[in-house]
Design brief:
The chain is α+β, with helices and mostly antiparallel strands and about 240 residues long. It folds into 2 domains: about 180 residues; about 35 residues, no CATH class. It contains 5 helices and 11 strands, in the order αββββββαββααββαβ. Strands 1, 2, 3, 4, 5, 6, 9, 10 and 11 form a 9-stranded antiparallel sheet that branches. A two-stranded antiparallel ribbon has the order 7-8. The longest helix has 16 residues.
């Protein structure tokens, strides 16, 4: 096997080993269902073929509560609620820990994708590392370009993410074909996976992942949409045409 093919084989093995994995569990107790999953996503960067370090080791936990608290017009299967046929409560939480802010990768890639495209002295062009040194002045420290150059407080703020992703109630009215969803939610328009055309109700949080990183099952649009507190109404018009 040639050296080039051997390198490709090693790279393929690393990518398979680092592919996001998920472990799921669901428990149901009458009208209450508790579910969740654990997932990890890892990215390495290498300045050469002999050196690599993690630049992302993101460990993600989701916990979701579903509660069918009102069915057939009765709350807790006991109390009659007028005007409401059924209702469901959903709460979804996401927690994240990224360990690179503790392990602090040490090497620096002195060139980014732009190469020597930054203005230097005497009309020359330099890489991003030399450009940062020029802007930083004589006292510029190498650590300013590394994760370890951040303060402990800044790293603690970056390595943890604790979000209430969704918290809403679905309400189906009894005498009219109208349903309401009220609370913190994502309103999804369209079924396209790779681009957004009509799906504009929720903005995107690209500090979480770039759009190019999200093909399912690894992430998906649900992970990078910003949930908002909203009301959504659905009116069932019935069959408008029959063949």
């Amino acid at each position: 096997m040639s050296e080039h093919r051997a390198k490709l084989a090693v790279l393929g093995a690393i990518l398979l080993a680092l592919a996001p994995r998920a472990a799921r569990a669901t428990q149901k107790f009458g009208p209450i269902q508790l579910s969740g999953n654990l997932q990890t996503a890892n990215i390495v960067r290498t300045p050469d073929q002999n050196t690599y370090e993690y630049i992302m080791n993101r460990n993600i936990a989701h916990i979701q509560l579903d509660y069918d608290w009102l069915q057939s017009g009765k709350f807790y299967n006991k109390y009659d609620i007028p005007f409401i046929d059924s209702s469901r409560l959903l709460i979804k939480w996401r927690g994240v820990y990224d360990s690179i802010y503790d392990t602090t990768p040490g090497f620096i890639q002195k060139e980014d994708i732009h190469g020597r495209a930054y203005p230097g002295p005497n009309g020359s062009f330099v890489n991003v590392f030399d450009f940062a040194k020029l802007k930083g002045g004589p006292g510029f420290a190498r650590s300013a370009l590394t994760v370890s150059g951040l303060s402990r407080r800044d790293r603690d703020g970056l390595k943890f993410d604790n979000q209430l992703r969704e918290a809403y109630a679905d309400i189906k009215l009894r005498n009219i074909p109208l349903s309401v969803r009220a609370g913190r939610q994502q309103i999804v328009w369209g079924e396209t996976d790779n681009f957004r055309m009509l799906d504009r109700a929720n903005s995107l949080d690209l500090t979480w992942h770039f759009q190019q990183e999200i093909p399912p099952p690894a992430y998906g649009w649900d992970e990078i949409r910003r949930p908002f507190w909203m009301l959504k109404f659905l009116y069932d018009v019935g069959d408008v045409w029959k063949l």
